[in-house]
Amino acid sequence: MKTESLSFAHKVLEAVDDAYFEWHPLKDVVVYSAKLMSLLGYENETYIDSSALLARHIEQEDFDEFIDQLKKHLKGVIQKIDITLPIKTKFEKSMWVHCVARVVEHSEGDASLLFGTVRDISATKQMMHQLKKQNDWLMFAERISNAGHWRYDIEQETLTWSAEIFRIHNLETNDFTPTIHKAVDLFIAKDRPKIRTMMNNAIHHHQAFQIKSCLLLANNIKRKVELNAEIERDALGNPKAIFGVYKDITRSENMFEKLKLLAMVNFTIRVPIFFIDDNDNVVYQDISPHYDEESSVLFNYINFSITEYMEFKKHAKEKGQIKQTNVSFDKYNSVFDLSVTYEAQEGIYIWIVENVTEKFRKEQQQIISNRLALLGNTFGNVSHDINNVLGVALGAIEMLELKFTRGEKDISTYIDRVKNAIDKGKDVTERLLAFTRKPTVKVVTFDPIQEILDNQYLFKQLLLSTINIQFKFEQLQCMINFPQGEFINILLNIVLNAQDAIQEKGLSGQIEISANLIEGNRLEIHVKDSGIGIENENLTKIFDPFYSSKSVNKGNGIGLANVYSTMYKHNGQIQVEGKSDLGGAHFTLIFKCKELHETYLPQNSNNEFLSYQNTNILVLDDEVSIAEFVALFLESKGANVVVANNKFELIERLSNDAAFDIFITDMILPDLSGKEAVNMVKEKFPAIKVYSISGYIAIEDRSWDYPVLRKPFNSKELAEFLSM
């Protein structure tokens, strides 16, 4: 409710600046002055209400503190209520007020009237808060920079330190009162006279100074510091104090020493070094071994862009250090070896760059020469292998021709030899692929002794008639897991090398192949010869791909380097001795094996059980003979086969009413690709099963979703392929 009239006392109080209130505790009636009501956000009129109005503008915790002081005052514990607290106005505006109140009247021994004033101190509180915040920022900045400030009052002769200087000295503020004398004594002995002289000159002659020195802490620990001082003057220019900064430079000085050492090491080889901080400023340039006016800027030395520079900084900061060799930023007109190390403690990037353009060009020329040499050696070796295979096939065909002219019917042996020779030729082309990409290797389980016996004729046919080869095997049966074709190729390689070694001594000689089992389920196959042997100093070189003691036209098969690699990849070992009991070298091949106590019976071929009875198959291949072979084989298995040799014939076959279950296509044809052919067929027969064949062994299309059979292939391989 509003009052009807005001007493004279109230009129006087309204004239002062402070807002006030009267509180009648016995009735809980509060008279709020007009200024107090205005302060709380109401109309500028005196108002009478209970204490609840005041409570609405004060947090409960603060109001409880006010009531607590009131109780203590009423009991005489404290002379008055004196409290600073935050309030919220009617419009939720935050303010700070200072309230002072005292009991002024009593009734029958009880307090009957409490009078108080309320002052808005928001501006003062804000200023104090800002000053505290700035002081906190200053302390935080000092902590980050490892620096503190100090001040010596010339008139009062007093020295004050900031908290960070106490921390630098490992001292507590309560345990140490700084003076000039005490402060100087904290430095190492040899620097104390100089520091005292500088302080005296600053005090009496008003001279600023700067010095680096060491503090001697407990346990003889030294801390490097930098001391800077300036003269503080009053408005008239008279000196009043010395103000200084005290900086802990231990880490930076240690870093500087490390950088100097690094520069001294690199100075001998004149490798340019650039020390650049986080803000891209050049630092410590004077210790760079290449320092001069023109090359002291990184961008004057290495011609990269700002974007590339920032990327190097980013990765160096993430990883600590990055190194790149043979990097260029101008299409290899200039080439650099580049190292960027980020020293996180000091925020410094150390750039070590070396122009290696000439070295790079020489290396590239050498690499090209080596590759050409390897390529020539490889093709020489491959041609040697292919000639051997063709020799076997040609000899077998000539024997077939003689048998045919004589009317003899027993020609199966020579047919098998032709087929075997073609298989070996296929192995040669697959090995050639190993020089360009990782080949697909099929590991099989077989009896290695039986494999050698089955191929005796191949060894004998490839060797000169003057060289006697003997096979000496114990009564043993075992199985190994190894690429079957590679097994014989490795032995042929070693045997042909043995023949070349024998020819170094003369035309005739002896080669012996034997085998035995050793402990640990391992099979040893020995190849000895009567050739010139291998000198001890060359034993470590013979598996080097660039080493050969023979002319290229003699060849070395797939090369002993590939022999070693193949054995290693398939958990085998190869050992060599320079001399054997036959006089020449002794090679030992070691395989993990499983010994058998009964004769091994190989699994029946898929060829035997493959059946395509009443299956319609479409075959597409531009090689007529291959298409006819596939068709003839599938027809023997009961299939109905339709053949196309080009795009035109494929379209014609698809236009007929026949429905096909399987489509077998070459991957590359003169007038369309395998993908195009498959798309044409699947458009009409979406559920058709697709197989592909290809003679391009170097092509590997990862987007091709269908199985591929490499040419050439025989009926057994075709059957296994189609049964997948």
From TrEMBL:
Residues 79-133 form the PAC domain. The modification 4-aspartylphosphate is found at D666. Its EC number is 2.7.13.3. Residues 5-77 form the PAS domain. CDD domains: HisKA, PAS. Residues 616-724 form the Response regulatory domain. Signal peptide: none annotated. Residues 381-595 form the Histidine kinase domain. Keywords: Phosphoprotein. InterPro entries: CheY-like_superfamily (IPR011006), HATPase_C_sf (IPR036890), HATPase_dom (IPR003594), His_kinase_dom (IPR005467), HisK_dim/P_dom (IPR003661), HisK_dim/P_sf (IPR036097), PAS (IPR000014), PAS-assoc_C (IPR000700). It catalyses: ATP + protein L-histidine = ADP + protein N-phospho-L-histidine. The keyword Lipoprotein does not apply. One of its GO terms (molecular function) is phosphorelay sensor kinase activity. Pfam families: HATPase_c, Response_reg. This is histidine kinase. It comes from Litorilituus lipolyticus.
